[in-house]
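Reviewers of the previous submission asked for a worked example of the structure-prediction workflow described in the proposal, so we include one complete record here. The input consisted solely of the amino acid sequence. No template or homolog information was supplied to the procedure at any stage.
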Amino acid sequence: MIVLRSVLFNLVFYVNLILQMIVFTPAYFLVSRKTAWFVPKNWARSNHWLFEKMVGTTFEIEGLENIPKSGYIFAPKHQSFWDVYALLPWLNDPFFILKRELTWIPLFGWYIRKQRMVPVNRAARGRAMTEVMDRAKQEMASGRELIIYPEGTRRPPGAPPHYKYGIARLYRDLNVPVVPVAMHPGLFWPRRKFLRFPGHFKVRVLPPIEAGLDPDEFLARLIEVTETASDELLLETVRDNPHLPLPPTAKQRLAELKAMGRS
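From that input alone, the workflow returned the following structure tokens.
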């Protein structure tokens, strides 16, 4: 049954993406940039509905009161494609730093350019990062929020932390608070797999880390608060969803937490 539901969900998920992009394209490109956010946010909400009805997976968000009004870095854990779109309805006017090749994709790339995402040419190295920082500062100055994944790429639940120093540089140069976010959607929507598992999990938005700290001090605090919350949520999610097939990284981390007297 899980295999069948997963196949159907994946099919409907991508059909939903294509249909909404086609149906809403005229409105998306006619209205103002900020108003046009209703299209991707509506798509995200429809995906939540599909995930619940077709797979049986639900979630709740704790700590929404910790999100500043504007001008901050939003720093979630990154475990699956779910993370990319799922929290958009609760953000005001976010933007991503992303590889420029994504802007070349027909229609999808047009959507990206409409929202003034910040493309990076990785081949240009130092010059590219200077341009990226200038663009990011411009967007932040208009009150937008930057979404960045501190570990850079998707990591399986329970994997040892592997934070990139890039977020510390952004924190220093943009001089804005950072909002850490802990969650384990990868237990229900695993990376690089088509299976989707039913259950319930929490997204925990943590208090902002204030601007102005030494970058090394900031990074240490970000890792500490995010990983502490991640461990708590891993224990809680596994306890509340005993049917879940756990990846080796989650099993290993649970064993380590048990050895530390946490269960």
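DSSP finds eight helices and seven strands in the chain. We consider this example representative of the routine output the project will generate in years two and three.
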